[in-house]
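Anyone up for a design puzzle?
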């Protein structure tokens, strides 16, 4: 049987890219493992806090229109990644095929995924957004099942049903409230997850032979132009951010778009896949806790029940995926 660690593709959370997993670096000492755990803790904290930072940057009174903020963020973050890659003598020149793939996936992941979340978080709680986006593996599994025209396993079907039940529970309070603006925010977050899933599937099936920082850098830059175009088309007002909005934006650029990506790649290199993938479960929990601690966002029984079902569904999907790889 094939080793699933040698061929599984790991979905990135906030970076908007896929990384082909490689077995962890062997070592007779514990050093690399501790270093890997350090990088994983960076991924936990930073990617778990990006939803809070987005909320702070675009909530009412922040002075930052959502698409303008997101566009400036990814243009800055992507440019830094490409400059870093070029100075490290990484290949940064793209073929036409790579331009097409990175352009399309960048728009799906960043403009469609991150952009709709950013727009929604003008009203939506950061923890709620994180939990709905945590369902991306559910959308990925559904899209792949449709594309492959292959009957899914019983485990996959059950996991999908559990995950969608969690999404329904998370959506009930908004549906019951009847507030139109909140309903549109919910729809935007659901579409964001679907778009993120589409971008993920595209990269799984059309990989590029580029360093992680290079591919992510180009994805962000391509998406940045898309963000600016959308901001112009819908005539977003000129940004006039308050100090805390600028700080949140800077955090998203430096930590969310640069450092966390580097730490995630190192965690994949130094740790077993089942350890590195725990970010998918930890990040939304951190997001909910930070939203409650810092912004006093409520944690209700709907939140707890929906979160449990979504994470259980994601765990089942990962298990089904790895089982298929190991028996393939």
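Challenge accepted. My sequence:
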């Amino acid at each position: 049987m094939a080793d699933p660690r040698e061929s599984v593709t790991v979905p990135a959370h906030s970076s908007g890219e896929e990384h082909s997993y490689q077995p962890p670096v062997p070592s007779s000492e514990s050093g690399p493992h501790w270093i890997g755990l350090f990088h994983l803790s960076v991924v936990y904290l930073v990617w778990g806090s990006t939803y809070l930072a987005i909320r702070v940057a675009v909530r009412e009174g922040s002075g930052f229109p959502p698409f303008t903020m997101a566009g400036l963020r990814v243009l800055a973050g992507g440019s830094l990644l490409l400059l870093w890659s070029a100075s490290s003598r990484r290949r940064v020149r793209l073929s036409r095929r790579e331009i097409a793939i990175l352009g399309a996936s960048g728009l799906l992941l960043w403009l469609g995924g991150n952009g709709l979340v950013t727009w929604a978080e003008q009203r939506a709680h950061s923890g709620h957004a994180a939990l709905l986006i945590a369902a991306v593996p559910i959308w990925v599994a559904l899209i792949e099942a449709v594309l492959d025209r292959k009957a899914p396993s019983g485990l996959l079907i059950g996991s999908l049903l559990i995950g969608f039940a969690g999404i329904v529970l998370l959506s009930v309070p908004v549906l019951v409230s009847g507030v139109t603006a909140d309903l549109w925010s919910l729809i935007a977050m659901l579409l964001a997850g679907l778009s993120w899933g589409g971008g993920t599937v595209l990269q799984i099936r059309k990989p590029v032979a580029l360093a992680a920082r290079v591919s992510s850098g180009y994805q962000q830059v391509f998406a940045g132009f898309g963000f600016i175009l959308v901001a112009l088309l819908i005539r977003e007002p000129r940004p006039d951010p308050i100090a805390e909005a600028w700080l949140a934006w800077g955090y998203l650029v430096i930590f969310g778009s640069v450092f966390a990506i580097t730490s995630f790649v190192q965690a994949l290199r130094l740790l077993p896949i089942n350890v590195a993938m725990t970010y998918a479960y930890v990040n939304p929990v951190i997001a909910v806790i930070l939203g409650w601690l810092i912004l006093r966002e409520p944690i209700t029984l709907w939140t707890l029940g929906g979160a449990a079902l979504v994470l259980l569904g994601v765990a089942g999907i990962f298990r089904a995926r790895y089982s298929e790889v190991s028996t393939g």
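A detail worth pointing out: The chain is about 75% helix and 0% strand.
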